Amino acid sequence: MSLERFINQQTSSWMSGGGPYSDVVLSTRVRLARNFSDVCFPTVFQFDDAKQIVEQINTATSKKLSLELLKMEDLSPLQKRVLVEKHLISPLLAESSLYGAALISEQEDISIMVNEEDHLRIQCLSSGLQLQETLNEANRIDDMIEESVQYAFDEKRGYLTACPTNVGTGLRASVMIHLPGLVLTRQMNRIIPAISQLGLVVRGIYGEGSEALGNIFQISNQLTLGKSEADIINDLGSVVHELMMREQSARDALVKTSHIQLEDRIFRSFGVLSNCRMVETNEAFQCLSDVRLGIDLGYIQHISKSILNELMILMQPGFLQQYAGGPLRAEERDVRRAALIRERLTMKETN
Questions:
Q1: I want to staple 134 with a disulfide (CB 3.0 to 4.6 A). Which of 13, 126, 280, 303 is the partner?
Q2: Is residue 234 part of a domain?
């Protein structure tokens, strides 16, 4: 296993599109925030503290897990960008030069971020909707680490973290969900505030501050204090199931009332992706969303639905520049993105 493998491998196992409810839910992520009891939080610690944490967690995990240690100081800005695009590290960790590190599994379904906002961010990823299963895996890794490390924990407050919103269970669970029906029927603007009132938050494809490209949203819990892990998972799961039902109803309504317009939109987007010579990221995401919807509705039958999962990573600026071997101007990226998408669609059609 090597850095080159993580950078060059196109998709992770959780992007396969084979999980439960994968026609709407792309992936499930569970993240646990943890800190060592005898070391200052990353906001105030020193380099020696950071180095000690990296060494301790690497030793603790090497006994039972096969993880590759990647230190942020050893990575180029482009390499870090690719890892962010693959959801293996956060943008905040990518900005770290000397303190940060990540431990990543070969299947890329486990990623332990070290010295980000907290000492540890244990992250597990699964395809489709698998909240309880993903939480179980994260807890298994958490328990294993705790055999060698003493966490900062308070009997009343729970796990202590750098950000008050993570105090308690330290659990952030999120679901990446594709909602073109609700967007096209203009329901998302009133759904998002309603979700927020339930203690959940709706974000874009790369979390806080990012856009909902291609009608893909992240739904996650907002607070971790005062709720058990089971409550957080159940509440999120209930909202996601409600969203899935509403999305299906919206799709059914579009097929019933706007069949020709919907089919025209889908095949126009397919035509753009199949023939364009230049395409920007936002337009590519929107066209891919339309094509994915066409696949789910049965309008397009010769393309696998995993195409959205695959291409939403491959067409990102970091990946395009990694394959090019260096920096590209925006126009050059648009040309390479179009060529890549045409090539992939041709391969899917041939297969």
A1: 126
A2: no
Sign of CA dihedral 212, 213, 215, 216: negative
Whether residue 199 is annotated as binding a ligand: the answer is no
Count: domains in the chain: 2
221 φ, ψ to 5°? -75, 150
168, 193, 225: which is the final residue of a domain? 168
Taking only the tens place, the pLDDT of each residue in 120-143 is 999 999 999 999 999 999 999 999
- Residue 17 pLDDT grade (very low, low, confident, very high; cuts 50, 70, 90): low
> Whole domain around residue 33: which residue ranges?
3-168
Q: According to the annotation, is 172 in a ligand binding site?
A: yes
Answer whether 68's CB lies under 8 Å from 107's CB: no
Q: Is 344 annotated as a binding residue?
A: no
- CATH code where residue 78 lies: 3.30.590.10
Check whether 141 is labelled as a binding-site residue.
no
Residue 119 assigned as binding residue: no
Judge whether 241 is annotated as a binding position: no
**291 known member of a binding site:** no
The answer on whether 175 is annotated among ligand-binding residues is: yes
178 is in an annotated binding site: no
Q: Is residue 272 part of a domain?
A: yes
Task: Please tell me whether 157 is known to bind a ligand.
Answer: no
150, 168, 186: which is the final residue of a domain?
168
| Helix H or strand E encompassing 33 | strand 25-34
Whether residue 114 is found in the same domain as residue 255: no
259 is known to lie in a ligand binding site = no
Annotated binding residue 94:
no
Q: Is 84 annotated as belonging to a binding site?
A: no
Strand ranges, E, within 35-179: 67-71, 101-105, 110-114, 120-127, 153-154, 158-159, 171-178
Place of tokens 């958490």: 142
**Residue range 142-181, pLDDT digits in tens:** 999 999 999 999 988 999 998 888 889 999 999 999 999 9
* Spatial distance between the Cα atoms of 87 and 84, rounded to a whole number of angstroms: 5
